[in-house]
Amino acid sequence: MIRIIDYGVGNIQAFLTLFKRQGIAAARASTPEELQDATRLILPGVGHFDHAMQRLNDSGLRSELERLVKQESVPIIGICVGMQMLSDGSDEGGLPGLGWIPGRVRSLSENSLVSNLPMPHMGWNTLRTKPSSRLFKSGFDDDPQFYFLHSFYFDADDKNSVAASAFYGLDFDAVVSSGHIHGIQCHPEKSHHWGAQLLKNFAEFG
């Protein structure tokens, strides 16, 4: 069962609809008890980093989520701000992140290479994927297009954990993977067949 973590941040229904179309069992989880049957986890997120972290901290879900991910090695994918929450922290706020993939979230607009471009980075962009990534193992051509909407990006400490990058004034880490823990900055639920295929691969491969 794929459990989508419902802590008041993110479009849960969009993921439920996408998985239903694919015939993949998925349900929201808003209590620790509802997480206990999870074989896969999705951590969505939109908006401000600190707001999302505080909502997760206040939800009563974090302890069970950490147990499942860190002790039981249940595969998880963080999406958009959910990806950023996997980091050690963000330049957007002061709260610590989950610290599951070492790195820091940085501002696009404060980088001189990007400062003259429209902000946020919004719209379709090409992912340059690593063929070794399980998230892109099947069903992808050479130039998959994904939908982005963000002003901050994950800067992974270990670039070996970068599964895909994108370019917006600078190359940035768009997808990260460390073992069973994954994060994607773009929105697969808004990325047509490419996003559906990525989530299908996650459901099958972890």
TrEMBL record:
Gene Ontology BP annotations: L-histidine biosynthetic process
Location (main, coarse): cytoplasm
Record's catalysed reaction(s): L-glutamine + H2O = L-glutamate + NH4(+); 5-[(5-phospho-1-deoxy-D-ribulos-1-ylimino)methylamino]-1-(5-phospho-beta-D-ribosyl)imidazole-4-carboxamide + L-glutamine = D-erythro-1-(imidazol-4-yl)glycerol 3-phosphate + 5-amino-1-(5-phospho-beta-D-ribosyl)imidazole-4-carboxamide + L-glutamate + H(+)
InterPro entries noted in UniProt: Class_I_gatase-like, GATASE, Imidazole-glycPsynth_HisH
Top-level taxon of the source organism: Bacteria
Pfam families to which the protein is assigned, alphabetical: GATase
Domain Glutamine amidotransferase: 33-202
Active site: C80, H187, E189
The EC number(s) this enzyme carries: 4.3.2.10, 3.5.1.2
Cellular component annotations (GO), alphabetically ordered: cytoplasm
UniProt keyword list: Amino-acid biosynthesis, Cytoplasm, Glutamine amidotransferase, Histidine biosynthesis, Hydrolase, Lyase
Cellular compartments annotated: Cytoplasm
UniProt pathway annotation: Amino-acid biosynthesis; L-histidine biosynthesis; L-histidine from 5-phospho-alpha-D-ribose 1-diphosphate: step 5/9
CDD domains hit by this protein: GATase1_IGP_Synthase
Gene Ontology MF terms in the entry: glutaminase activity; imidazoleglycerol-phosphate synthase activity; lyase activity
Subunit structure: Heterodimer of HisH and HisF.
PANTHER family named among the record's database cross-references: IMIDAZOLE GLYCEROL PHOSPHATE SYNTHASE SUBUNIT HISH (PTHR42701:SF1)
Function, as annotated: IGPS catalyzes the conversion of PRFAR and glutamine to IGP, AICAR and glutamate. The HisH subunit catalyzes the hydrolysis of glutamine to glutamate and ammonia as part of the synthesis of IGP and AICAR. The resulting ammonia molecule is channeled to the active site of HisF.
Name of this protein: Imidazole glycerol phosphate synthase subunit HisH
The species this protein was found in: Alkalimarinus sediminis
Encoding gene per record: hisH
